[in-house]
Specification:
By secondary structure, the chain is of the alpha+beta class. The protein has three helices and four strands. The chain has helices at 3-6, 26-37, 68-80; strands at 12-21, 47-50, 56-65, 84-87. The longest helix is centred in the last third of the chain and has 13 residues, at 68-80.
Length: 88
Amino acid sequence: MSEAQALLAYPCPFPIKVLGRRAPGFAQQVVSIVLRHAPDFEPASLEMRPSREGRYLSLTCTVRAISREQLDALYRELCDHPAVVMVL
C-alpha cells in the first residue's frame, strides 16, 4: 500500500473544492458531474461562496469516497470542464 493510499480509509467523507467562473448553470453542471461519480451525493449539502468581486464561485461538495479510482475520475472530469479554474 502506498503512502497516499494509507492516508484515507475508504469509505470516508471527502470534501472537494471547485473554483470556477461564475456563470448561469455552473453549480448545476458541477453537481451533475459529482453525481455521476458519487450517486449518493446530496445536492442540498453543496456549499457555495462567491469571490469578493463576484467573478468566481467556490463550491464545496463533500462526497462519500469509496476508492482512490473514484476520486481520480471525479477530479479528472471536473478539471476537464471549461468553466472550472481549479479543483482542490
